[in-house]
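wait is this the right file?? whatever heres the structure
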């Protein structure tokens, strides 16, 4: 039986039922504050899991992050939700069943602070390489078995956690410890280690929390970046932020010029690679000019997109190229609808969506993972460049000078810091394409299929090593005069 109204997250329904059954005083004592769906969506846009990630949700609650992953169409290797409250653990299990989560999505009833890497192996679970958490907000004097947990973490990490620390800092150190142990057995998993925590501003900004972040950086190489939840997403009582910890990578305030000239520079240090938008049915969501006119779809509901199944010559795709394809009848417009009820949309759009329902598009795997089946997750900014991930020969980097969105037929790349001019971008592209040719000659990056067809995933692409020459070009052309504060404000604005 479906418990959720149209578009409402099942995890939120279970959270509401739990709040109705247990008093506010009881929930405060337990430090239980449920994450709203819009905050979970935002958090996973700050740090998007990838195909090879095993995501551990520490303090899973009712499984809001698991449901967000599936509704947003994020493809991951596995999910492990750890929850110490039996009713909440059971709620997460029910949510996973309702949303038809894959078998790799598991719920573990247990205390996260007592877990070790060996416990994951004993349960037959893959080692997590990414943690996400809205940890219980329990103050230090209310933590159970605090002294024993503190001693174990101090012995393992060599860090003295302040006795004033709440559960959030203990959860953070436990996540670091699990990943540290995993490094000894699963080096490739540990290379992509990431930790994303939602914390109250007053807790994250306290002196002992700042000291802990400094210790994690100096002793274990974990850099943290701070992301404030956008005002439009906050609830009246919400005063929280997200802290993202990334192992051994420059944070968002670091210049590309700071990349170590050790000969071990990777593409991911300068470029963020992501998949394109999954529509579930391109024939419905991607329209030609004739489709738009015939359906009378308002321009405000359309965004320019890179067409599929087209040859791309050269290292740049311009607005002129796009207009030529558009004039020749290619589908070049992506239907971009807001996440509101159908009744609030333009009448012509309502009729088009009703046609989609008659065709069963609201029941596709992609649609069932979305809050509104017709409202696709659209990135805030188009990719700086495109990257072919299905190729014969070497992969190619193509400048997106037309500022188009892209679908799953091609990968997108965003410079981690902006490159100033088109000329400089083309210079960088030339170096990257030479690197791609070298990767191919030295060992064919990615996986090989029939007839010499190659495929490479975003995270694999980010791991490809770049030469000292290319690193030098990046150091030359990447903007480095913005302050950390300016970058933080820019990041908040783009969110």
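ok assuming it is, sequence goes like this
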């Amino acid at each position: 039986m479906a418990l959720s109204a149209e578009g409402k997250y099942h995890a939120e329904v279970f959270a509401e039922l739990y709040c109705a059954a247990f008093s506010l005083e009881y929930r405060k004592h337990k430090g239980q504050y449920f994450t709203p769906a819009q905050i979970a969506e935002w958090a996973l846009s700050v740090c998007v899991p990838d195909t090879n990630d095993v995501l551990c949700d520490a303090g899973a609650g009712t499984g809001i992050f698991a449901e967000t992953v599936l509704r947003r169409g994020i493809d991951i290797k596995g999910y492990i939700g750890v929850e110490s409250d039996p009713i909440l653990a059971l709620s997460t299990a029910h949510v996973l069943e309702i949303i038809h989560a894959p078998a790799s999505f598991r719920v573990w009833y247990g205390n996260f602070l007592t877990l070790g890497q060996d416990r994951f192996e004993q349960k037959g679970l893959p080692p997590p390489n990414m943690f996400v958490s809205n940890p219980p907000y329990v103050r230090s004097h209310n933590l159970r078995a605090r002294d024993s947990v503190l001693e174990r973490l101090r012995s393992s990490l060599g860090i003295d956690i302040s006795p004033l620390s709440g559960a959030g800092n203990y959860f953070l150190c436990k996540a670091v410890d699990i990943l540290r142990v995993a490094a000894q057995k699963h080096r490739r998993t540990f290379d992509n280690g990431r930790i994303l925590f939602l914390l109250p501003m007053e807790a994250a900004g306290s002196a002992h929390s700042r000291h802990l972040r400094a210790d994690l950086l100096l002793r274990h190489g974990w850099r943290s970046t701070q992301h404030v939840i956008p005002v439009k997403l906050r609830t009246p009582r919400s005063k929280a932020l997200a802290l993202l910890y990334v192992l051994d990578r420059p944070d968002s305030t670091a210049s590309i010029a700071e990349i170590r000239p050790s000969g071990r520079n990777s593409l991911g240090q300068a470029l963020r690679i992501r998949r394109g938008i999954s529509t579930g049915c391109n024939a419905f969501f991607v329209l030609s000019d004739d489709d738009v006119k015939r359906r009378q779809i308002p321009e405000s509901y359309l965004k320019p997109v890179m067409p599929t199944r087209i040859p791309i010559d050269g290292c740049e795709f311009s607005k002129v190229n796009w207009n030529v394809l558009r004039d020749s009848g290619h589908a070049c417009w992506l239907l971009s609808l807001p996440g509101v009820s159908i009744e609030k949309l333009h009448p012509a759009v309502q009729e088009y969506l009703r046609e989609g329902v008659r065709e069963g598009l609201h029941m596709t795997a992609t649609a069932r993972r979305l809050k509104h089946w017709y409202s696709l997750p659209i990135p805030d900014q188009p990719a700086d460049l495109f990257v072919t991930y299905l190729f014969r020969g070497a992969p190619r980097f193509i400048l997106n000078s037309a500022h188009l969105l892209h679908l799953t037929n091609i990968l997108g790349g965003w410079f981690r810091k902006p490159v100033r001019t088109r000329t400089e971008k083309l210079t960088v592209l030339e170096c990257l394409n030479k690197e791609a040719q070298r990767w191919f000659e030295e060992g064919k990056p990615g996986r090989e299929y029939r007839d010499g067809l190659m495929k490479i995933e975003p995270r694999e692409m980010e791991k490809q090593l770049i030469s000292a020459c290319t690193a030098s070009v990046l150091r030359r052309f990447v903007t480095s005069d913005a302050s950390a504060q300016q970058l933080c404000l820019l990041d908040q604005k783009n969110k």
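Residues 422-443 form the longest helix (22 residues). so i think its the right one actually
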